Amino acid sequence: MNNPQAFYHRLKQAREEHGMTQVDAAKHLKIARQTYLDLENGRTQPRLDTLLELSKMFNKSIMFFAGDRPSLDEFDTLELLAELQQRYVTLSANKTDAATAQPE
Asked: Which residues form the HTH cro/C1-type domain (predicted)?
């Protein structure tokens, strides 16, 4: 992991977002409460299987827990804007069609 400190901060953040206690998280992961506490307090790093389970449990990517953020250096903003505009036009057209359709 690029930033070991990021892991335990993000682990606590994800757990709190899901309204779970540390005991709940440990039970779900099928690990000892102390083992979970050690993870969340930064005393140990997770095993790969635990990291994968955390990713599934909190619906977060492994990269989220690693503290990595995607780079926007090669991000094509104009391409995204064009796609979003097309989606908006399509969505608006579908809503208009649905509103003007008469029941049979």
From this structure: 11-65
